[in-house]
Design a protein that fits this description.
Shape of chain B: globular
Helix content of chain B: under 10%
Distance between the termini of chain B: 36 Å
Structural class of chain B: mainly beta
Oligomer: heterodimer
Shape of chain A: globular
Number of helices of chain A: 0
Number of helices of chain B: 0
Radius of gyration of chain A: 14 Å
Number of strands of chain A: 11
Largest sheet of chain B: 7 strands, mixed
Order of helices and strands of chain B: EEEEEEEEEEE
Helix content of chain A: under 10%
Number of strands of chain B: 11
């Protein structure tokens, strides 16, 4: 029972274009969502987050959108750069004061020069 | 600035052996977690701690023990290794519940 789903295992985008990575969740008890980027042989690094009380958060080239009614999260990268090529994980945290995170299975982004 | 340090980076064990994966952070973070990453499964939470002396179970705690005697260290113990525990293990920390986690570079564990 995958509570956080990333249905696209991979995505290829031309340099300079927009990359859109998607994430769906099933549990209404999540209150905080994050995106992490992971390079091979390294740990995930934090990219951007959004609270459930917001619907958009921007940080430079990265924007995260949250649609609570659809239980859908997306990460937009504009413009995409070759260095953005990595695996991207979305993660969701349970509310009620816990520190439990559920991660999606990841989407491998390849930005073509 | 070391951040989160995991040792060893690689380990091969035989079924039934025990082992401790080490995790240390130098950021004075109260919150620490252990995850395992398997192909097609993403990262799954094994155990977590919200401060010295306080630990709790995650999604997949069976076969693993943790303790937190200091703020800096959060070791993960495999009591009797099984092939199903072959995975990449990541340790993470954060300075509050509402801050994102910093991850170590992982320990790749193979159990034969």
């Amino acid at each position: 029972d995958q509570q956080v789903k990333q249905n696209s295992p991979s995505l290829s985008v031309q340099e300079g274009r927009i990359s859109i990575l998607n994430c769906d969740y099933t549990n209404s008890m999540f209150d905080y969502f994050l995106w992490y980027k992971k390079y091979p042989a390294e740990g995930p690094t934090f990219l951007i987050s959004i609270s459930s009380i917001k619907d958009k958060n921007e940080d430079g080239r990265f924007t995260v959108f949250l649609n609570k009614s659809a239980k859908h999260l997306s990460l937009h990268i504009v413009p995409s750069q070759p260095g953005d090529s990595a695996v991207y994980f979305c993660a969701a945290r349970f509310t009620s004061g816990t520190y439990k995170y559920i991660f999606g299975t990841g989407t491998r982004l390849k930005v073509l020069a | 600035n070391a951040g989160v340090t995991q040792t060893p980076k690689f380990q091969v064990l035989k079924t039934g052996q025990s082992m401790t994966l080490q995790c240390a952070q130098d950021m004075n973070h109260e919150y620490m977690s252990w995850y395992r990453q398997d192909p097609g499964m993403g990262l799954r939470l094994i155990h977590y701690s919200v401060g010295a002396g306080i630990t709790d179970q995650g999604e997949v705690p069976n076969g693993y023990n943790v303790s937190r005697s200091t703020t800096e260290d959060f070791p993960l113990r495999l009591l009797s290794a099984a092939p199903s525990q072959t995975s990449v293990y990541f340790c993470a920390s954060s300075n509050s519940r509402n801050q994102p986690q910093h991850f170590g570079d992982g320990t790749r564990l193979s159990i034969l």
